[in-house]
Write a structure and sequence with these properties.
This protein is mainly α. The chain contains 1 helix and 3 strands, in the order βββα. It has one domain. The longest helix has 43 residues.
């Protein structure tokens, strides 16, 4: 199969004569690494969000008990 390199767009992308686009293994590995990093950030943000929600609920409970 004859692939031509699309150097103007991205050096890690190859285009087949029919128009199909292939991503090289190096580019795919970088994409997976970025996805894993973003997933880890998301896990940390969710944990922080849970903690903040917990403190917010506690403070609302404390404030409501004072009002009674």
């Amino acid at each position: 199969m004859g692939y031509k390199k699309i150097s103007m767009v991205n050096k890690n992308i190859l285009e087949e004569p029919g128009g199909a686009v292939l991503i090289t293994k190096a580019k795919l590995q970088r994409l997976y690494r970025v996805i894993r990093e973003k997933e880890q950030e998301l896990v940390q943000l969710r944990a922080e969000n849970l903690k903040l929600n917990y403190y917010l609920c506690r403070s609302k409970l404390d404030n409501s008990s004072i009002k009674l």
